[in-house]
């Protein structure tokens, strides 16, 4: 009898193992698709690596391969926002190199790691559904780098595929390509050698139906019409990548999970706020005498009064619902002012700039200095010269990828907490500061003489901030360079453009109406749909970046222009 029980137990264990192996093998089925991008083929695969992740995918172009994984918790986060973390890490082993530090291993994150992580984050974040407050992490792992094809754009596509092939709620997929321009000819995902002679470095991420979610670019005075054409061509190729990822998802029969809790605000609470506070909110947003501080204080007073009333009328409401109901109404009123009345909260026309003032040669010991003020945004810039030995030495994998070993021009951006009347920690490199500084540096780099015999460091310290401090840094940096006597080819200026749009309720993917805002305030960035930073000279565009873009059509750029 005992032997019979042991035999049955052995069969039961064997059955469980076979079942587990069957499930594992079915999950491990390799799926692969190729996307034809002109002369190059992009390969998308899943089902072989990192199978415990919610989603995993590998993108390969040439001999460069990038794997991305997506994992999201099933319990909501206590913080009432989308807690998304994107980490991209360069690895010397992927390029067949050994790090040159004393430990011979990777030490922390590089600037390029952070900038690429931000690039991926801006591409995927807008497509998470509202109210999805679950900790989510995207990790991009460089498997192999051939030194010919850059991995950054591949990482965006890999993150998109990993999310699309997972059960994580996400309204993707997206596709991303790099567009170069050599002798007037557009190239899709150009090689490292081709990029050395390219006058354009454009990365565009597109969503289904030819919508754009992210643009980042640097250029050497590229004309507006050429830039618009490059965006349209880039969006066209992103659609091929999107269709391939969608096909993989259909083959895998992906079913998205239903969140344990969907954070949404009850309509009766929102309606109560409309009746209670709409007139007071409208009065603040139409009082053009307010500045940033006084406007914020006036709105916060209304907020506190409204929240106290809501807590009495809805005693069982959650803290998030109380806060969000007021935010919904204030955002609605602010946007309707722009859409229906063509009015901005500071009284400007939609296309008007804020008052600008400049000063230079502020401190005699400095090689060059300038103060740029636009409205309530103020940036102090300084220029320092040093020998070429002080140039930035690239890390080993960046050298392997780009071939550039030294960089003798740099711009460092600082955003202290007092710039927005806040208290915070000083020191340490923040991702936002690095990203804003990199954008301003891209704007200025094309006008710096390539044979300049010194290393140039521009520091841009934001002293006051009410919108578009990165573009103010480009303006102030240009002025400081001229004050220092650097023979730049042309002065550079930058401005931020905002978007307030109205969605077609019958077709939510279409924009029914919209208004473009020139030189946006911080509140217009926060309550709007887009932060479109554009820098250039009187000869053309030098840098461009689009943030927080929800739905905006690429053909609008070409047809409407950037007037």
From TrEMBL:
* GO MF annotation, one: 3'-5'-RNA exonuclease activity
Q: What is this protein called?
A: Putative polyribonucleotide nucleotidyltransferase 1 mitochondrial
Please name the GO terms of the biological process aspect recorded for this protein, alphabetically: mitochondrial mRNA catabolic process; mitochondrial RNA 3'-end processing
Keyword annotations = RNA-binding, Transferase
Zinc as a keyword? no
UniProt-listed SUPFAM superfamilies? Polynucleotide phosphorylase/guanosine pentaphosphate synthase (PNPase/GPSI), domain 3, Ribonuclease PH domain 2-like, Ribosomal protein S5 domain 2-like
Origin: domain of life: Eukaryota
Q: PANTHER family, alphabetically?
A: POLYRIBONUCLEOTIDE NUCLEOTIDYLTRANSFERASE, POLYRIBONUCLEOTIDE NUCLEOTIDYLTRANSFERASE 1, MITOCHONDRIAL
Tell me the ranges covered by the Polyribonucleotide nucleotidyltransferase RNA-binding domain, including all copies.
Answer: 269-349
Q: Name one GO cellular component term.
A: cytosol
Instruction: Identify the residues that the record assigns to the Exoribonuclease phosphorolytic domain, covering every copy.
Output: 40-169, 172-236, 353-487
């Amino acid at each position: 009898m005992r032997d019979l029980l042991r035999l049955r137990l052995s069969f039961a264990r064997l059955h469980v193992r076979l079942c587990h192996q069957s499930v594992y093998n079915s999950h491990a089925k390799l799926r692969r698709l190729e996307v034809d991008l002109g002369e190059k083929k992009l390969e998308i695969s899943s089902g072989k690596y990192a199978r415990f992740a919610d989603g995993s995918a590998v993108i390969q172009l040439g001999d460069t391969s990038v794997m991305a994984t997506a994992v999201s918790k099933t319990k909501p986060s206590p913080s009432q926002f989308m807690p998304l973390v994107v980490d991209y890490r360069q690895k010397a082993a992927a390029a067949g190199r050994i790090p040159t530090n004393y430990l011979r291993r990777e030490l922390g994150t590089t600037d390029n790691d952070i900038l690429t992580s931000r690039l991926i984050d801006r591409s995927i974040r807008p497509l998470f559904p509202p109210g999805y407050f679950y900790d989510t992490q995207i990790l991009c792992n460089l498997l192999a780098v051939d030194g010919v094809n850059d991995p950054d754009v591949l990482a965006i596509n890999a993150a998109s595929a990993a999310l699309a092939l997972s059960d994580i709620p996400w309204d993707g997929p997206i596709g991303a390509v790099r567009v170069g321009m050599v002798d007037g000819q557009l190239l899709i995902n150009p090689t490292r050698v081709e990029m050395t002679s390219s006058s354009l470095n454009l990365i565009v991420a597109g969503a289904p139906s030819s919508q754009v979610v992210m643009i980042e670019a640097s250029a050497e005075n590229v004309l507006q019409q050429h830039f618009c054409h490059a965006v349209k061509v880039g969006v066209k190729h992103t659609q091929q990548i999107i269709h391939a990822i969608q096909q993989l998802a259909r083959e895998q029969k992906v079913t998205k999970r239903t969140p344990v809790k969907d954070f949404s605000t009850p309509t009766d609470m929102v309606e109560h706020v409309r009746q209670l506070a709409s007139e007071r909110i409208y009065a603040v947003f139409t009082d053009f005498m307010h500045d940033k501080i006084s406007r914020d204080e006036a709105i916060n007073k209304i907020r506190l009064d409204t929240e106290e009333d809501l807590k009495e009328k809805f005693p069982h409401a959650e803290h998030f619902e109380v806060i969000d109901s007021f935010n919904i109404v204030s955002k609605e009123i602010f946007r309707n002012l722009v859409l229906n009345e063509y009015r901005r909260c500071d009284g400007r026309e939609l296309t008007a700039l804020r008052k600008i003032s400049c000063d230079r040669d502020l401190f005699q010991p400095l090689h060059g200095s300038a103060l740029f003020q636009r409205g309530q945004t103020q940036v102090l810039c300084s220029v320092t010269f040093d020998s070429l030995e002080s140039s930035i030495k690239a890390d080993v994998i960046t050298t392997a990828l780009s071939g550039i070993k030294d960089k003798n021009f740099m711009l460092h951006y600082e955003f202290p907490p007092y710039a927005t009347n806040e208290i915070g920690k000083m020191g340490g490199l923040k991702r936002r500061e690095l990203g804003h500084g990199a954008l301003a540096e891209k704007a200025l780099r094309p006008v710096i003489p390539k044979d300049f015999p010194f290393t140039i460091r521009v520091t841009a310290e934001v002293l006051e901030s009410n919108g578009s401090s990165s573009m103010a840094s480009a303006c102030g940096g240009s002025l400081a360079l001229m004050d220092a006597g650097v023979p730049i080819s042309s002065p550079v200026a930058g401005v931020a453009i905002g978007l307030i749009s109205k969605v077609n309720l019958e077709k939510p993917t279409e924009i029914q109406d919209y208004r473009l805002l020139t030189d946006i305030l911080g509140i217009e960035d926060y309550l709007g749909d887009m932060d479109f930073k554009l820098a250039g000279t009187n000869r053309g565009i030098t840098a461009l970046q689009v943030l927080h873009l929800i739905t905006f059509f690429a053909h609008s750029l070409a047809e409407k222009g950037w007037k």
